[in-house]
Amino acid sequence: MKAEYRIEFLFVWVIVESSLYRIPSDMQKKDSIMSETDHIGSISGPFRVGILPIAGFPLMSYACTVEPLRAANLLSQRSLYEIVHFGQAPRTSSSGAAMVERSYEVGDTVDLDLLLVLAGGDPFSFDDAHVFTWLNRMARTGVQIGGVSGGPVVLVKAGLMDGHRMTVHWEHAPLLTEHFRDVIVERRLFVIDRDRVTCGGGTAPLDLMHALITSHHGGVFARHVSDWFLHTDIRAETAPQRAAVSDRVGTTSPRVHEAGSLMESH
After folding, report:
1. Are 151 and 121 in contact (CB under 8 A)?
2. Per-residue confidence band for 102, with pLDDT thresholds at 50, 70 and 90
3. CB atoms within 10 A of CB 224
4. Is 263 inside a domain boundary?
5. Number of helices and strands in the chain (H, E)
6. Is residue 87 assigned to a domain?
7. Residue 166: enclosing H or E segment and its boundaries?
8. Residue 33's Cα: distance from chain center in Å?
């Protein structure tokens, strides 16, 4: 008689106040990861990032978006970035493992530099006219607007991507181009086109935030932040979202690879 074994895993999520991440003052000079040769940009005041998580937002994409900004504050020992959340109610992630409390209501006029919409699941079903109106109003005030994972679909539905290059999670790309034939979708990790920022989601926000931090505070400091997350293989925005067709189907046939690539692009 075979013995039966059952292994149960318990994951405990511990959320602590951001102040607990601060380096104690008596350790700052000794343990600071920043050296005198590193130069942090002189942006006046913190760069304010607003996050609008749509119910069922992907937790992976969310963490990869906000954590690099938190780490930038920690490693620089300065308030380089400030993150605020918007919503009409607390939003639960797709896995149910996290809930994001709102800082402001949708509709509030808040001074921001960048506003990102995070969505997963079925972003095509999202049809909140109040949110669409608010996003457009924020864009008119000069706020850079962006979307992560399925978030770019929400931006398209809000009429905010007209004439802008963009990307979206590969799962949503076929339906998006079918329903909105004028959108300029590029199969890459992220796209920054003037006042619009779109990202495919997953772990790609790590690379997007690396680019953002580099533009603000230089590549040396951005590398410190990426190293904090053991993210040593920084990908360019033009990197693909998926592995090569030959890797996914287990063949090196050029014809199969060409056929698969052709099908994915249509």
Report:
1. no
2. confident
3. 19
4. no
5. 9, 10
6. yes
7. strand 165-166
8. 25
Residue 17 in domain: no
Q: How far is CA 184 from CA 10, 173, 176, 202, in A?
A: 43, 11, 10, 21
> Can you give the residue range of the structural domain that contains 95?
43-240
**Residue 150, domain CATH:** 3.40.50.880
21 contacts 70 by C-beta, under 8 angstroms: yes
Q: 154-174 pLDDT, tens per residue?
A: 999 999 999 999 999 999 999
Residue 253 is assigned to a structural domain of this protein: no
Tens digit of each residue's pLDDT (9 = 90 or more) over 1-52? 444 444 444 444 444 444 333 444 444 443 555 553 356 665 667 999 999 9
Q: What letters, b where the CB count within 10 A reaches 16 and e where it falls short, cover 170-185?
A: eebbeebbeeeeebeb
Give me the number of domains the chain comprises: 1
Which structure tokens are listed for 39?
A: 């130069």
Q: Is residue 97 helix, strand or coil? A: coil
In three-state secondary structure terms, 80 is coil
For the record, the structure tokens of 26 come out as 């008596």
Say which residues have a Cβ less than 8 Å from residue 247's Cβ, sequence separation at least 6.
none
What digits encode the pLDDT tens for the residues 120-136? 999 999 999 999 999 99
Measure the CA–CA gap between 63 and 30, rounded to whole angstroms: 29
What count of other Cβ atoms lies within 10 Å of the Cβ of residue 151? 33
Burial of 218 (0-12, 13-18, 19+ CB in 10 A): middle
- CA–CA separation, 209 vs 67, rounded Å? 9
Model pTM? 0.80
Q: Which residue has the higher pLDDT, 224 or 33?
A: 224
